[in-house]
Amino acid sequence: MSGKTNIRGNRLETEIERSREESNWKKVIELAEHLKARNQPGLETLANFLIGEGKLESYLEENPPTESNVQRARTGLADARKYLMMCIGEPAKKLEVSLDALLLLSKLEYAVGDYEGALAHLTSAGLDQLTEKTLPTRSLRIVAESYAIKGLCSERVPLPNNSKYQRAEKSEKMIRCFELAGDLTLLYLQEQDKLTSTPSTHSLQSLPAATTTGSTSPLPPSGLENKKIGVILETALQRAPILYMKAGQLDKAITRYRSMLAAVESTATQHLRLTLARQLAEVLLRGCSEHTYQPPTQGGKHFDERSKSSSNLKSGESPWKPQNYSGTNLFVPRNINEEIILLLLISEAMAVREAVLSQSPEFKNARVHAFDNATAVYDLLCISLARRKQFKILIEVFERAMKFSHEESHVWQQFGLALACGRKDARALLVLQEVHRLLPAQPHYCLLAARLCFQQLAKIDEGLEWVEKAIKCCEERMSFLSARCYLYQGMGLMLSANHDQRHSNSHTLRAKALESLTRAQQLDSSDHLVEFYLALLYAQNFHLVEAMHHVKLALYLRSDHPHSLHLLILLISAQKDYEEALELCEAALKEYPDDLHLMYVRASLEEAVFGGEVALLTARRMLTLWQKLYKEQLSSDTTDSQSYHHTNHDTYSIFNMSDKDAASVHAESVAASRVEQALSEVASSLSSYQPKPGPHQAWLLQIQIWLLTAQLYIKTDQLSEAAHCIQEASSIFPMSHHIMFMKGLLHEKKSEFHEAQTCYQNALAINPYHLKSLRHLVSTLQWVVFIFPDDSALDLFLSNQA
What we know:
By secondary structure, the protein is mainly alpha-helical. Among the domains are: 604-735, no CATH class; 741-802, no CATH class. The chain is built from 38 helices and no strands.
């Protein structure tokens, strides 16, 4: 009989330990009652401990130990206190339950708000004298919570003598407690995964898949990980780096974050890793510079000394350290940018994985919580990636966010801005339409949509409609953006006037533009852009005196505005005062030595003042500068969006002030640019011509420089050099009407009037409104009439022209 009783006792103890490890406290209490009913010596004390532990833990699972639950806990934990107090005497010490009872009593005192009592129990238990040795899983959690409670209570208990030395000593002890609690927590959770045979299904290796697929269920996560880890341990894990930062030890805070993230992930830490990775990225963004940054491999400590398995410890290594990731193929960031983006992309992958797709009302809290976590990561990604102009990655990130961003205006706003910055203009306009639907009272996004229509999409009428929406929003709410709305309206009307080929319509549109710009000036007399566009409008109407007045006002309001400087130089040159204009241009180039706008004007002015040879030197310097500015972009896989943001100004309008149809692809006639593009594609399919790699905008700039150089060579009678320049431009974009026009000039200079006429006709076939080609075609026809007075020949040429 005694043998059977021992077997039953061993089975009962095994069942109790398994239930404790599984946190099945109801069953623990039931088994403890059976144990107590045996009436064997010492079992009663053990049973009391188990009942007290079960009552304490089951209550705290229902009512977490927070300040809001303190009053309720004082009555709800009375039974647990009674049972645990029975387990701290000499009999309990012999059964080795007194230590655990004291540690659990400290947890109870913390839950009821008696922080000094909790510290007293921890002192009685000798927590600081515990030996770091291998512990059972349940003991790991108890000890981890005890260190966490000691740190939390120490923060709340004031010092008797608040001296600087005591504060520093207290801070050091608290950090030590939180670090031990964090390491033991991570180790405990890793051991829990081993015991339950449910290893983490979301290890680091699975993150790329999570990044692309996202959540596979519309339902929120089960929340079991929060029950496993608890409020106390979760707070302890995040507290140590915060205390380091408060103490001004940012490097130690970063090291602590890295050590926790290097631990092998367990099921219960999946959500916590999202928080830790985001916090570390935020610390690196806000508090660390490239000069003070130390990479994770500094000294080899972070991944070498702490990356050994806890089950295969070497001599001198603490058994309380969690198992870390190890291997030869681990990616280690080499600089601060790599680490920040890596952390944020990992965080984004986890945030997408935890997203709640269901719109059911019962999941509202879980959906809001997951969305807030994801939004915090997206905000940091915007800051980090936008600084480095990585808009392609940012767009991909927000595309993944769309699945759980239903009716969430913040993500739609950021998505629209990312698309606009990444030069995905058509998509950006569609997203901004959705933003306007979600935020109909915000004029900012109406103005951004109008800017896209004006600047990129050539949808001027639609842009004016967006401006009207913005004006309506501002008038209803007296917004400070009213002046900017009227400015945009004036700009749109000016563009409409430039595109309208009927003089009466153009005149009417310019009059309306003047009214809008004047209204903007009345609302905000300190806006330099209003004065600039007023000057530009007067200049287009050939009112040079008024234009000079307003451009000087624009420079008075903002002296470093390069477009105003550019316009002032052109206005002075329009008054035939080339030397003064050249002097001002050279002064502006001292401020902006890399401005190709001003160098183009300088070359034109030098040709008028000193002759073509001097202007050619400037043109050659422009080619050298172009190589300097864009060589790196052309050698890498750089998109048009990065080229667009490379310069300080809008590259598409670089020469538009001096010649309104000068930029080939962004010409006065949108149809002309589309014809050019289509012809170039046909040429690339029918011949050996291949488009140049790299950003398109950069190559358009080089075309303009080659054509300027060719024109200067023609004027200095260096025709062979001019032909080479035209050939270089043709190799980039052969079907440009500007290149056709320049070929006509070269033939006309050689008195080859038939060929010149053909070139001008080709240019006009692409862009019928190219004024220079029309003028030179008329001049060429006059020479043809002079050379071929025969009526039949003249009729032939006129019929061809018709």
